[in-house]
Amino acid sequence: MTDAMVDDYPFIRAIHSIADAKNLHELVVVSMRQIPVAGFDCFRNHPTLREASIGLGSLRRNAEVTRLLGLPPVSNTKPIKKYVEDDDTAND
To answer: Which pTM was predicted?
Structure first.
């Protein structure tokens, strides 16, 4: 698997198994308010991950994950800001 997109699956509480993909290049996680920022630790320093776009329902949480991963956004996706609720503190 080189690309992974997780979009609005309310029953998923963890995404760490995706980090086991040895050839993962792109990660897109949107509309996944239930995933905590710490849930992305497993992608930190992933050997092949090159781009990640995150939409967790909060600009602050999105920025935290972006800083944690230190990767540019996936170049061929819609802007993630679309997936952020109007009230940025709703899920803080």
So the answer is: 0.82
